[in-house]
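User: Here's a chain of 312 residues. Predict its fold as tokens.
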Amino acid sequence: MWRRYSQWLDEGETEGDPLGAPMLWPDGRHIAANGRGRIFLWSLATGECTRVLKTGAICRNGEPWFRLAGEAALGRVLEAYKIRGLAIWDSTDWRRLQTFEGHGEEVQAAAVVSEDRVVSISADSSARLWDAWTGENLRTLETGPLFALAHAPARGLVAVGGSNGAVHLLDSLTLDVRALFHLRMATARPEPLGIARNRPSNTLRALAWHPDGEHLLCGSWDFVAHMVHSRTGRVVRQWQGHADGVDFVAVEPSRGLLCTGSSGGTVRVWSLDSTKCLAVHDLGHADLGGLLVHDRTLYVTCQRELLSVPLD
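Assistant: Prediction complete.
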């Protein structure tokens, strides 16, 4: 049974914000999701929306495309800033520590990869390395348009992906390329096709690391989730069943589960060790903002709500 948690609305506010992907807050006690220039925090203990933070992000199309990121060691959070920038904040007193500007399009995602380094990606066909304290752009790597990022701290790697199925495996502190491959997209299509969209099927929208640290889990617009070797791009497994693009992936490592979210409005739960689909959740509309798995619970942002369901 899904539980639904509403936003904290200002007096006289009736609708609230469409929400981006959920994130575990650095304090470990809240789930957060960004909206139009705001971040909403829900208590894990009560489900109540207890805090709303202003960010300075400007959503030109009304949707928060930037995927929030945080790191617990110093309690910092990355969020979009203005139109094409991003900023790093102290999560305890919500003090903006630094801004990073230079991308030519909106920043899609970013990660704090060390105490003094930040990596960001954009549809402007670049990944950028920044000094976390000064905001200096240390390196720019020219790629194709990028939409997905997955950080592996233990391995010192960042995987980024986007158009043409391209995946770059990068050293997180230098952006040196450790591997580059183009994911071979599936040719199978489920029936019915669902919502028809004029968009390239070989576009990667989501990346996550497999618990083994060697493989990547990829969501793409070919309607399929893929498991690939991070160095060679060899496809190990494919999960087929969504009737539209796979925009979000999340992993529950203790039970070996893969959760995928589709722009067709469905969330599926799979076994990581086989192609078996264990559960299908139809949320009724296509406005999914993202997925998060925490403490054996799946959290989903959908339109203006945070939803949760135990992964039993």
